[in-house]
């Protein structure tokens, strides 16, 4: 079975400071990991994904995520937060094992609030 | 929101009424999905389809129905059997197992 956890319902950060939104996962095989962002009353937008290769993945809007296999984590990061980054962030995972589902499992979401 | 559209943006349902939410994509994706989003509960999968004329139930299919007669279209009907339909509904499409692209959503309210 595949699962993903976002341990923080809300993250608060001051504008200009670095931000981290946490995500941990559980799969039987290798993970296929995604981050999405949702602004109020909008659909989700894709930010970045990890399949294999370099553990540091760069994505849209200056975001990046670090894959850590030993800690089964895929934390989203940004060196300098903007007020406009305030949104709901979702982590998702799909188990790449043979015969596994192609449907990803989403976390419950983390609300990021960037204060001016 | 890419090449996937949902309509209407807001939908009002009366007691005992069936309503249909539209989802269309021009991304040539085989797979399409319907999710329900309630505050604080993340996304819950209602139905999904990986090919025309075939679809499978997700985690919360009761009270909902779908059809997939065309590759581009995956409408969702919220039936009168769904007793708590008020939510934000999101449609998505993808190539199998890859990045999902989401529509702008439909907010369903009960009168």
Structural features, described:
The complex is a heterodimer of chains A (116) and B (111). In chain A, 0% of the residues lie in helices and 52% in strands. Chain A is built from no helices and twelve strands. Chain A is globular. With 111 residues, chain B is mainly β. Chain B has no helices and eleven strands. In chain B, the strands form two sheets. In chain B, strands 2, 4, 5, 6, 9, 10 and 11 form a seven-stranded mixed sheet that branches. In chain B, strand 5 and strand 6 form a beta hairpin. In chain B, 36% of the residues are buried. The mean pLDDT of chain B is 94. The interface between A and B is medium-sized, with 20 and 26 residues.
Q: How much of the residues of chain A is beta strand, in percent?
A: over 45%
Name the helix and strand elements of chain A from N-terminus to C-terminus, one letter apiece: EEEEEEEEEEEE
Q: Main beta sheet of chain A: strand number and arrangement?
A: 6 strands, mixed
Largest interface: A-B, 20 and 26 residues
């Amino acid at each position: 079975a595949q699962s993903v956890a976002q341990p923080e319902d809300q993250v608060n950060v001051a504008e200009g400071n670095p931000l981290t939104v946490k995500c941990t996962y559980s799969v039987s095989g290798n993970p296929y990991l995604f981050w999405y962002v949702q602004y109020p009353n909008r659909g989700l937008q894709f930010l970045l994904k990890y399949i294999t290769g370099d553990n540091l993945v760069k994505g849209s809007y200056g975001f990046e995520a670090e894959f850590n296999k030993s800690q089964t984590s895929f934390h989203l990061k940004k060196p300098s937060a903007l007020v406009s980054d305030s949104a709901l962030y979702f982590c998702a995972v799909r188990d790449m094992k043979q015969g596994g589902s192609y449907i990803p499992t989403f976390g419950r979401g983390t609300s990021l609030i960037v204060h001016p | 929101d890419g090449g996937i559209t949902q309509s209407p943006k807001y939908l009002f349902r009366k007691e005992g009424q069936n309503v249909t939410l539209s989802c269309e994509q021009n991304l040539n994706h085989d797979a399409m999905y319907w999710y329900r989003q309630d505050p604080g509960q993340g996304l819950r999968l209602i139905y999904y389809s990986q090919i025309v004329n075939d679809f499978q139930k997700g985690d919360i299919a009761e009270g909902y129905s779908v059809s997939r007669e065309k590759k581009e279209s995956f409408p969702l009907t919220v039936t009168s059997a769904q007793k708590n339909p008020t939510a934000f509904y999101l449609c998505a499409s993808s190539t199998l197992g890859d990045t999902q692209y989401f529509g702008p959503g439909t907010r369903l309210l009960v009168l």
